[in-house]
Design a protein that fits this description.
This protein is mainly alpha-helical. The chain has two helices and no strands.
């Protein structure tokens, strides 16, 4: 887990402001310009990664939709094939009763 980038309340220090009151920060006195540049660079990379993941998610969602459609089509075809087989089985004549095997001497 990346604890440095966490925004959980347990990770935040200082008193909480009252609702509707904005905190002000003096970044010039608090942070080194190198730190701000590193944070900005990291935010840029995170935004790029987020965009990549969104595009990947859209492609995967399209694949899921296509596969779901294909599955439904195959299920329909399978159901139709089963119905045709059942109809053919119904058209077959009844099988005659099996006759006992006899030997040349006439005894089974």
């Amino acid at each position: 887990m990346n604890r440095q980038a966490s925004t959980n309340a347990a990770d935040c220090s200082g008193p909480r402001p009252k609702p509707g009151v904005r905190r002000t920060y003096n970044l010039g006195a608090m942070a080194d310009p190198n730190d701000i540049a590193q944070i900005a660079n990291r935010v840029d990379r995170l935004l790029l990664r987020h965009g990549e993941l969104q595009r990947t998610n859209e492609l995967l969602a399209a694949q899921v939709a296509a596969l779901t459609s294909e599955r439904d089509l195959l299920r329909s075809r399978l159901s139709a094939a089963r119905a045709r087989i059942d109809a053919l089985l119904d058209r077959l004549p009844e099988a005659p009763a099996p006759t006992p095997l006899t030997t040349p001497s006439g005894t089974p």
